[in-house]
């Protein structure tokens, strides 16, 4: 109980010192020093104020000559919700040995331990800080309190506050007012960019007023006009702005000084609205800045056709200028974040992908590779039902070769295996050009491709080109692998011989056979014809005699 009370008092004293903006020491007891630092360089509290979790590294060092045992680590978060009001919240989860270590139990901001720490030893813990929204992270802090005992039961305490808060009661404050409707300030103007070192510590409040005024050409001096004229080249002037910054110094609410600021110690970003009457997609805008006898061109940093964004640290005359272009006549080649390649194994014909419009919309932050893999079909892997369907549908077709085609979309890293695309649902087919193997290139043959599915459905894909050495098809179906049979499809390059040529060839062949086997003399052929005619005549005469005899018998 005594340890708890002492630990609470230590923690409360740290919070009280923080609330009063008093400089605190890094450790309560010099024999134990404690340090807490964020893992990344970014502001951890700003991220936590957005609800994000942030990793910290906690180190505890035993500076004494005795070995100690750490019995508890208290970790609180002092969040300022309103002025001088702090809520003490549990801060994060502790991991033994660092961020990859074992998570330790936590009870309302306290982690009980029995962790030995030798003299001169440093222990490291990982702390995953909770995301806490809607607090003033610039005035909040983490409080760490460590309790350790030696072998004689004597307790030692160490602690720290992250970040250390220095005495800021005399720091100057700064406020920004933008009076312009034509220019937006997209950066925060920091105090040290507009105030001198003396002003930063004088304790007064400052207001920085940003102004922009449209300047009539008649109010611009001839010297400035001549400088701009020589820098214009082919550019045209849309309007002229006078940008200025005024620094106002206040004691409480009383204005005690006012100064014009012509330059800053670091640049800020300004966005200038283009007047509606000058907006044209065939115009490229920029800024000519005239400052102390120097004209500088500031290029547009954004893609918005209605604005010009620049970085600047000097304030005077700003010329909004443009160059007329002919973008309507330009052929714009869109940048691609993908590539297409084809890989074929031994025994597979050469295949080429002829179109790219089947590729679906892609995330522009990554690059992709679409790879078509072609293999010679292993007939043993084709199921019997599909084979039977193919055999029944071939008719006069002959198979030249079987193909197994896979289409793979790989991500931004070559080590990623990629996704198999079984079916393209983009509404656009892939145009494939397949070389016909030389041994099957015969004049008069007509080639096509049969697409056979695992369940035996068959579709004939007609040849779309006139090249006798290739077959071009459109398809949206590809295979997964031999083991995922439900998504397997097989391609067969088939052919038929021209029917007219076949008939002519058969007729000629029959004639040749007739000539080679018929050895009859022409005279004997003629004699045979005359004999057949005589037999025919005798037959007719006999029939007439028989008819006359029958007729007389009937009459008697």
Structural class given helices, strands, pairing? Answer: alpha+beta
Shape: flat
Low-confidence stretches: 1-28, 500-508, 515-528
Q: How many H/I helices?
A: 8
- Strand fraction band? 35-45%
> Helix content range of the residues, please?
10-25%
Mean pLDDT: 78
For the largest beta-sheet, the strand count, sense and barrel status come to: 7 strands, mixed
| Gyration radius, rounded | 47 Å
Number of strands: 30
End-to-end CA span: 161 Å
What is the domain total for the residues? 3
Descriptive account of the structure:
With 556 residues, the protein is of the alpha+beta class. The chain folds into three domains: 2-162, Immunoglobulin-like (Sandwich); 173-329, no CATH class; 338-499. The chain is 19% helix and 41% strand. It contains eight helices and 30 strands. The strands form six sheets. Strands 11, 13, 14, 15, 17, 18 and 20 form a seven-stranded mixed β-sheet that branches. Strands 21, 23, 24, 25, 27, 28 and 30 form a seven-stranded mixed β-sheet that branches. The longest helix has 34 residues, at 522-555. It starts with a helix and ends with a helix.
How is the secondary structure organized here?
Blueprint: H1 2-19, E1 32-38, H2 44-48, E2 54-62, E3 68-82, E4 85-90, E5 93-96, E6 102-103, E7 110-117, E8 122-129, E9 141-149, E10 155-162, E11 173-178, E12 183-185, H3 191-194, H4 197-200, E13 205-214, H5 222-232, E14 236-251, E15 254-261, E16 263-273, E17 283-291, E18 294-299, E19 307-314, E20 317-324, E21 338-344, E22 351-353, E23 368-376, H6 384-393, E24 398-410, E25 419-420, E26 430-435, E27 445-453, E28 458-462, E29 470-475, E30 489-497, H7 499-517, H8 522-555
